[in-house]
Amino acid sequence: MKTGGERAQSGVIGNVLILGFVLTAAATIVVIGGAAFADTKADAQMQSAEQAVSQISAGGGQVGLGGSPRQQFRLDGDDGTVSFRPNAGSVRVYHDYESGETEILNASFGALVYSVGDEEVAYQGGGVWRGDDGGSIMVTPPEYHYRGRTLTFPLVRMTGQPWSDSGTVRGTMADNGTEVVFPDGGLGNPLDNGTVYVEVQSDYHDGWATFFESRAEGNVQHFPDNRTVVADLTVPFEETFDHAVAATTVGGIDESAVDGPTIDGVDRPSPSSEIEARVDDCRSGGCESLDGTVENEVIEDGVHYADESVTIGSDTTFDTSDGDIDVVVNGDLTLKGQGGPHSADQQITGGGTVTVYVNGTLDASGNPLTNTNGDPSDLLVLIHTNQSNTLSFSGTAQFTGAVYAPGSTIEINGGGAVDDNIVGGVVAESFEADGNGKLAYEPMTHELELNNTENQITFLHVSENRIDIERAD
After folding, report:
1. Is this prediction's pTM over 0.90?
2. For an engineered disulfide with 287, which of 32, 190, 244, 303 has Cβ 3.0 to 4.6 Å away?
3. How far apart are CA 113 and CA 82, in angstroms?
4. 3-class DSSP assignment, residue 412
5. Are 331 and 382 part of one and the same domain?
6. CA 109 to CA 201: how far, in whole Å?
7. Domain extent for 117
8. pLDDT by residue (tens digit) across 64-77?
């Protein structure tokens, strides 16, 4: 049995232990609560900074785009820092085309930045961005507008001396001049062929990438290691087949098998969107049905569609007397013939043009003679670039016409009893020949326009709108 003294001692120890637990718990609550309070305060500061910098962006837009000669701004630094970085980030705009490249703009953005620790809110390029060590997001979009094949890019560029300060910072944004960069002088609209690239280098590259991907159209490449984003827009394209072979791969032509002018390393847009649009139109109705096997038939004017692979054999006539013929194949196209010298297996009559859209590949290894009694301007074949493939012309195959297949290898194998396997011209990723295979060039009147190419640009308007940033004393 415990004595009264022992009970008293036990009670004191118990009180001490309870008191210690209470004090420890209270201290833990203070620590955790303090950290949460600090996080809440920091987040509130950054949200407030977003609003303040967004207001500065609106004022900067007024100055840069001619609405006001001068605007004042104020940022309350509190626990953070306000800085102006005139060389922060850059943008380059250039037009890449077959014969070279034209640089349209190459300039720094500049940035007005509010920062707390590793978190930043910045005004750059007309937009507002928030970032930390884990990446960046767009708060408000930059001045970059793509509408109806017209890109308008009024670059808001901030100039002045660098500075950094804390506490409440006041300053001014003043108009420092505007320069129209494009069109200007020898550079003008409408654009002709090639691709326009917009390349942005920025600490807020994640945000820029998201903007280009979701709001600005165009194909986008993101290089995080270099803090760089590249968006491109395709200039409307017209192919006139001025070469026997035009290859997109540098060194991708077997010159020994070509009789005529060649060019390699060219930039050619994919015909895939055009082909897919034709397939979609025919699926909606209005096209003549085409069987999977065509032989001993006469095909007349209009659009003919097969929702499968097609083999076109001997004694097939395309009669264009009443108008041109379009053939749309949602699959592979195979041309077959009798073999050896003979009259054309697939002939074109009537003085019109046959255009074939192939959502697959082309196989002319079955010794066909295609349009051999005609002119290469009579026949044009477009091949989808959904996968790397080889278009084969082998044996005694002879094809008179043009092939547009910038994503495919065209291979001639053999030659046999014919002088030239292809008479006309081709656009391909590469051109190869084995044995006695030959391609002979003949001028053509084809004017291929790829109207359904995605992200097209016809008109470009670029200006440099300078804003001078000064800190008030």
Report:
1. no
2. 303
3. 6
4. strand
5. yes
6. 9
7. 43-235+457-471
8. 998 899 999 998 86
